[in-house]
Structure to design on (120 residues):
């Protein structure tokens, strides 16, 4: 189908090169507009349905992520508790080691005093 423009853009008239009367053009134009409107309505409903389905998937995804965050929070709290316990154990071990070192120094000092008293 070939179309040609007969007049300038201010008064645009499109006619078919082969003979076709105005009534046929009008009927085909209206038919085409109706088809485009129906196609537009179908596309709009499909797009809205797609958005509605994605919303459900998004909610499921957010719920899953919330559950994972809760689990990770619980694990972090457990690890912090274990860390505090280990810190107190390390501090106790350090204190015991310091006391043992002080006792060893005192024992060495006494042994040195005993040895010095025998040599005199």
């Amino acid at each position: 189908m070939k179309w040609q423009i007969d007049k300038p853009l201010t008064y645009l008239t499109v006619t078919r090169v082969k003979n076709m009367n105005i009534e046929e053009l009008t009927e085909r134009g209206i038919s085409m507009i109706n088809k485009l409107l129906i196609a537009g309505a179908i596309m709009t409903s499909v797009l809205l349905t797609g958005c509605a389905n994605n919303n459900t998937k998004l909610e499921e995804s957010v719920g899953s992520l919330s559950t994972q965050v809760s689990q990770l929070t619980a694990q972090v709290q457990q690890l912090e508790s274990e860390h505090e316990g280990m810190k107190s154990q390390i501090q106790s071990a350090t204190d015991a080691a310091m006391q043992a070192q002080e006792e060893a120094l005192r024992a060495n000092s006494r042994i040195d005093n005993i040895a010095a008293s025998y040599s005199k």
Q: What stands out?
A: The helical segments are 22-119.
